[in-house]
Design a protein that fits this description.
This protein is an alpha+beta fold. The protein has a domain of about 190 residues: Alpha-Beta Plaits, CATH 3.30.70. Helix content is about 30%, strand content about 25%. The protein has 14 helices and 21 strands. The protein has an eight-stranded antiparallel beta sheet. The longest helix is centred in the last third of the chain and has 15 residues. The two termini are about 35 Å apart. The structure holds flavin-adenine dinucleotide. Flavin-adenine dinucleotide binds next to strand 5, helix 4 and strand 12. Flavin-adenine dinucleotide (FAD) binds next to strand 5, helix 4 and strand 12.
């Protein structure tokens, strides 16, 4: 097949796309569903000829308009395999459509685990890396730090192989870059030896949770909690309401807490008590969610978390006593990216949600203003109210990120309206 034929073949009439929440949807001019790296390259070449912009999607689990494009939408669902694995170095190279859970379960079969992952596993690894998706733990950075190399198709339709070892600052900018540097056609991850997780869940009063916070953070690989304003909150996030032990002295205004500790796979399982589970990391990490919420998630500096949390709780209790959704709070270690929420700063993520109703925006906007006083940074896969001016204030490397983006994509092929307003 010659080049011209491939370019034409790879573009199909634009198909309706919508995200997991149904909040974002669009019909692009063309949809490309590449099955090979070469086909992905030809999608960019064809878009360039037609002077159209390009955006890729993963599993569509992000809230904001990080995918929509009027031009060429590249859907990587047809590229979902492991490319290679290095059992000595514990590294795996995968295609861009692979879901976190698919990689995690594959790694188990070859004696490895992901060092950390978020609380669902149905998003793609590439999408998770692109937005700085994270789990919880003061020693555990976001998933962008698990990437050690990647192959991208640049705006010129060339392949560019990037690695942490070889590309220094360029790789730091690329680590968390919301699909702005090009189409990612493969990614290499640094995994760790396979481990099981001993998980303990329980409910307690807020005072107990916050009072014991630092001790629990320091003595466990992972400690995180959901603040439940009312009893009903638990079921909105499919949290195990009545089936975990509880020391809470009341029904409302309590915390659901979780501890995860890693146990090498050759060690015996502990005797399990009520509220405890023990299984492979690929089994314990994922949790069920239903698309019933509108969410912002901002990271405040680690040392200011308790103050920020107290203010958020106070605002809920005084102004939004009818609010039902849990507030999820997770610590994340600093990384070396330019614009992840944890770029060179240990952080504490506060995720704040309401129902998928118009009124929720007002509450989220007020939380945004509150958290801005903490120089809070957004999760790029969740709603936020950022402006270019604000990003300049909260990210020391913001100008470097924009300059690098312009160098790699001077014509803005991988921008869309949402991202142009922030990073052009
Ligand atoms: C129920 C639920 C639970 C979640 N839990 C967590 C959590 O625990 N922790 C957390 O931090 N986040 C969490 N998130 C957020 C989620 O991890 C991010 O939104 C993530 O980016 C979604 O990945 P995706 O595969 O759906 O990518 P998409 O949302 O489809 O895309 C994300 C970005 O990646 C880009 N992209 C994707 N593939 C490519 C490619 N091949 N080349 C170039 N660019 C590409 C897209 O253009 C877009 O900019 C959760 C989201 C949901 C809905």
């Amino acid at each position: 097949m010659d080049t011209m034929t491939t370019e034409v073949d790879v573009l199909q009439p634009g198909a309706l796309w919508w995200n997991w929440f149904g909040e974002q949807y669009f019909v692009p001019r063309y949809t490309a569903r590449p099955r090979t790296e070469e086909e992905a390259r030809h999608a960019v070449l064809a878009a360039r000829k037609l002077k159209l912009p390009v955006r890729a999607s993963g599993a569509g689990h992000s809230n904001p308009a990080v995918v929509p494009t009027p031009g060429v939408h590249v859907d990587f669902d047809g590229m979902r395999d492991v490319i290679s694995v290095d059992r000595e170095k514990l590294q795996v190279t995968i295609q861009p459509g692979m879901r976190v859970g698919e990689v995690s379960r594959y790694l188990r079969t070859v004696g490895m685990s992901l060092n950390n992952q978020g609380d669902i596993d149905t998003q793609t690894v590439v999408g998770a890396i692109a937005t700085g998706t994270h789990g919880a733990g003061i020693t555990l950075p976001c998933m962008s730090m698990q990437m050690i190399a990647a192959r991208i198709v640049t705006a010129d339709g060339d392949f560019l192989d990037l690695s942490a070892e070889k590309d220094g600052e360029l790789f730091r900018a690329f680590r968390c870059s919301i699909g702005l540097f090009g189409l990612v056609v493969s990614v290499t991850l640094q995994a760790v030896p396979s481990y099981n997780i001993h998980k303990i869940s329980w409910n307690a009063d807020v005072e107990d949770c916050i009072g014991g916070l630092h001790q629990r953070l320091e003595t466990n690989r992972t400690f995180w909690f959901f603040w439940l304003p009312v009893k009903k909150s638990a079921e909105l996030y499919v949290l195990p309401g009545g089936v975990v032990p509880s020391t809470a002295t009341r029904e409302n205004d309590i915390c659901h807490m979780r501890v995860y500790n890693a146990v090498p796979v050759d060690e015996a399982a502990p005797a399990l008590k009520e509220g405890e589970q023990f299984d492979h990391s690929s089994v314990i990490f994922p949790n069920p969610y239903i698309p019933n919420f509108r969410e912002i998630e901002y990271a405040v500096p680690f040392g200011r978390f308790e103050e920020a949390f107290a203010e958020v709780r106070h605002l809920f209790q005084t102004k939004y006593p009818e609010a039902l959704y849990p507030v999820e709070c997770r610590p994340v270690k600093a990384d070396d990216s330019y614009i992840s929420a944890y770029a060179e700063r240990d952080g504490y993520a506060l995720s704040i949600s309401g129902p998928l109703e118009f009124e929720t925006w007002g509450m989220l906007k007020e939380m945004d203003a509150l958290l801005d006083r903490y120089d809070a940074r957004p999760h790029w896969g969740k709603h936020h109210f950022m402006s270019a001016e604000r990003l300049e204030r909260i990210y020391p490397r913001y100008d470097d990120f924009k300059r690098t983006r312009r160098e790699i994509d001077p014509d803005g092929v991988f921008l869309n309206d949402h991202l142009r307003s922030l990073f052009a």
